[in-house]
What we know:
Elements: H1 2-8, H2 10-33, H3 51-70, H4 72-93, H5 105-120
Amino acid sequence: MGRFGGAVGVWEALAFSTAVQLGFAVAILLATRGGFGGLHHVGGTPAWMWLGGLMGFTVVGAITFAQPRIGATAVIGILIAGQLVMGAAIDRFGLFGVHQIAISAPRAIGIVLLGIGAALSLVR
């Protein structure tokens, strides 16, 4: 995505990527469900549940923007570290209706080590 964004523009690459994802998702939905399945229930769900789409857009946008600047290794490392930290926070506080899971010492060590690895990947 970084190279694509460099060739056509970050926003253009992001828009095209999102359109391709939509096309594939609709095709798979039609092929597996024979129609639009439970999409008619989307309006009845809490708005916070729709944040997944915004988060996916943000991740792809960040990759498209950051990869040419800091490299693929650093981008992937930072994304994984960020997702792990956010996942640990969600578990710890029971956010979004999930069961609370404490941050144990091994879990905390793993998060710190991954953060160190992500930071080291920025060194050229």
